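Anyone have C-alpha cells for Esterase? Sequence:
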Amino acid sequence: MNIIYIHGFQSSPKSIKAQQLQQYCAQDDELTVHVPDLNMPPEQALQVLQDLVLNYPDVALIGSSLGGFYATQLVARHALPAVLINPAMRPWQLFRDLFGQQQLPYQVHPEWILDEAQLDYLEQIAVPNVQQADKVLVLLQQGDDVLDYREAERYYASQQPRAWVMTEAHGNHAMDDFAAKIPMILQFFSSSRL
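Reply: yep, here.
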C-alpha cells in the first residue's frame, strides 16, 4: 500500500506525525509512505498530490489540518480511503480570519506567498457534501486550539453512509497522541480495501 501523508499549513515533510508514520511503516515491506513538501500555492499542491495518486497503485491518504481539506477533495475525485486529522473545513475563511486584509498577501514560505486569489480557489474547489464518506475516518480532538471540531463533525456525518468520526475530549490541533493511533489507521485502510 502507498500511503500519502498530506501535511498541514506551515508544516513540512519533517513534521512529527509524518516522521512517526514513516518510522512505524518502515517495519512493513508492504507499506510505503510518501510525504511531499506542499509548501506551495494550493492549486500546485493539489497537482502534486494528484500526480502521486495517479502514479502509484493502492493509495491511501492521511491528511492533517489543511492536508485534511486536500485529502477530502482527492477522496471525492478518486474514491480513495482517507484518514483525516483535525481537518480544516473552510481554510479560505480560516486564513482570512487569521491574517485579515492587513497581512494578505502573507509570506508562508520562501517560495510561497498566500493571496486572495488562492483563498478564492480553495473556496471554489471545496466539495459541498462529503463524497465516498464510508471510505473516510475522521479523528478529532475537542481541545483543538486552531479549528472548531464541531464543523468537521457536522460535515462528515451529514451524508449516508456516514464517515467514521472519532471525537476525543481534550487533545490539541497537533494530535500529540498520533503515534498511538497508527495501528488503528492501518487497520482502517486494510478494512477499506476489502
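Residues 57 and 121 are 28 Å apart (CA to CA).
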